[in-house]
Amino acid sequence: MAERLAIFLLALVVTKSSAMDFIEVNASSMGIATMTSRIYLALGLTLTLWVGGVSVTAQEPQIPAHSQLTLRQAVNQALGQNPLAAISHANDLEALAESRLARTNLLPQLSFTEEISRGDDPVYAFGTRLRQRKFTQNDFALNALNRPQPIGNFATRFSGSWTAFDSFKSQREIRRADLLRASASSSGKAVDQQIVLHVVEVYQSVLYAQREIDVAQHEQETAEALLASAKDHVRAGLAVESDQMSAEVNVAARQQELIAAQGDLELAWAELREAMGTPELQIIELKPIEPHTFAQLTLDEEIAIAARMRPDLTALSQTQSAQSVTVSAARSAFGPTVSTYGTWEEDRRSLGSSGGNDWVAGVQISVDLLPLGKRAQLAQQSAAKQRIDAQVSASQQQVRLQVSRAHIHRKTAELMIETARAAMNQSAESLRILKNRYSAGLATITDLLRAEDAERQSQSMYWKAVYGNAVAYAELLHATGTLTPDRAEELQ
Asked: How many CB atoms are located within 10 Å of the residue 70 CB?
């Protein structure tokens, strides 16, 4: 519709321009006609270009522009959206609340009460009159004492208490809560590193899947070229039809491999979306995977780094210290407790009337003479301390094993890159030679297809080794407790 409108306007302008030119020829003395003709022509061209631009803009697809997704961006997104990170943050907040709650034991307790009551209970009526300071001689009459008239009372009361000394039990509970809070923070760091490792693995799998598609497309083009060459040899009488059929089967196999590689890429992207917590993320081209050379340390150095930096070990050590403090707090429960208390109260017959007020204050010292329950609690906490001590020892041994495994895995992956690179270069040279021999009629199609398959496998193995080297280094950083978002950038 827009194109038709543009053509109509252009035709109208041309017609109008021709008419004005005719007027200009017959009345050359009138310069106004010439100027009007040019104005109409300029206006027509402007409208034509504008309508054409609108048409082109309307026909062009709106392709969203995607920025390059780096590994650091994927890691940051995962740390902000992953449910495990949210759970870790909630645990940290819970530990913070428990730490603040433990400190409330050192603070005084103060309460306010407004009470309204009415009754004829003899004890209640007698005591209420005394508190209201309204007791008279007539209230001592036997009939008034035994059968008092109902009386109402409006009581305003402030009461408070404070534990001045509890054998340092509250201080130890505060220390325990602080250690558990630090342990929760360290556990959160361990969860973050686990999230980073998972993102690195799936991100690298996407890069590897992209390379696999490149390899599959290259091999498909090579197979089609071999098929064309086989057809030429058959037409020239230099090969039989079975050679052409073998080349066609090879093309079909390469097409299947390309389809499988595309499926692997979609699966890798699905895993990356899940790790990042962004299900709406579209498939975009990432920076291709490249071989890296990473820094090397000795196994003893890496084990020493893990002993200092592993956040899960730190969290377990802090939990161990907290349990030790818990045992000390359980022992403190056997000691004496000194507490103070006080009450101020005002009693009135009505809300606006005057009455009496009184106060009571005191100090209380208590000692549990038969602490059977406290002994059982101490035994329970001591057993828990032994269990945590054993967990710390087992975790330290497990960390040493994990670092050793990651260290060996990284060294193996680095050596595999060199071997795979040499094999890839050799297979490429072998394929080149066999292509020349086949063109000269000195090699069979079977030899050529075998060399092409070897070259394809060598390329796939090389990029798989590059992928394995990056993941192995990430696993080593995770095993030593140093896999931070900044260190993850080294794998880009």
From this structure: 15
